[in-house]
Amino acid sequence: MKLVFATNNLNKLAEIRMLVPFSIEILSLKDINCNEELPETSDNLEDNAAQKAFYIFDNFGYNCFADDTGLEIDVLDGCPGVYSARYAGEQCIAEDNIQKVLSEMKGEKNRDACFRTIISLVIDGKHFQFEGMVEGQIIPEKWGNNGFGYDPIFLPNGFDESFAQMSIQQKNEISHRGLAVKKLIAFLKKKI
Ligand code: IMP
Questions:
Q1: Measured in angstroms, how far is the CA atom of residue 25 from the centroid of ligand 1?
Q2: What Å distances lie between residue 136 and 61, 67, 102, 143, 153, CA to CA?
Q3: CB neighbour list of residue 79: distance below 8 Å, 6 or more residues apart
Q4: pLDDT digits (tens, 9 = 90+) for 47-89
Q5: Which domains are assigned to the chain?
């Protein structure tokens, strides 16, 4: 089975390629010559994931899945949430987002947060969604250099290493995206 993963994020591609069985070939956007920015104009993860997956199915004709992820922080009323990628502004990089979160949470006792991923799968025009969530704490400084995005400041509950201190395999075991992908794979295995 061939499936396009509708992302330009090479870290996400690497994470997911480690999880899927050999019988499922994951194609990147580059593999299908899709060089455009995918639309994600909604204010929630569910609709954004669906928008991206249907964009590829409708315009390129491939069965496809897309994910949308947000970091939801309790004392920030669920922000950055669906705006996680550009929390510090349109042109920002991950470091800017991290510094914005750390400054907004300076002195806060409640550090509770979660990562939530929604995966939309479009197969032959039919749409299915899978959710993965991991709870943790926002630590007041960066730990580790692995991973991407907010990984250095996210300490999953029950662990003493941030996501950025874990290997891809360790992170996949417990992460939002790892959990959502496991649900996706269980579903696909019933189809192939
Ligand atoms: P996206 O819209 O699903 O690509 O995710 C939005 C933003 O959330 C990304 O640009 C990252 O900043 C952040 N993000 C998504 N997944 C992760 C993760 O696994 N670790 C850390 N940050 C993440």
A1: 23
A2: 39, 20, 15, 14, 10
A3: 72, 73, 87
A4: 999 999 999 999 999 999 999 999 999 999 999 999 999 999 9
A5: 2-191 (3.90.950.10)
The residue annotated as part of the active site, out of 67, 68, 74, 160, is 68
Question: Mutation test of ligand 1: which of 69, 83, 146 has the most ligand atoms closer than 8 Å to its C-beta?
Answer: 69
Q: What is the pLDDT of residues 107-126, one digit of tens each?
A: 999 999 999 999 999 999 99
- Short-list 117, 85, 115, CA closest to 182: 117
For the residues of 81-99, what is the DSSP string, one character each? Answer: ETTGGGTT-TT--HHHHHH
Residues forming a β-bridge with 67: 119
- Output the pTM of the full model: 0.92
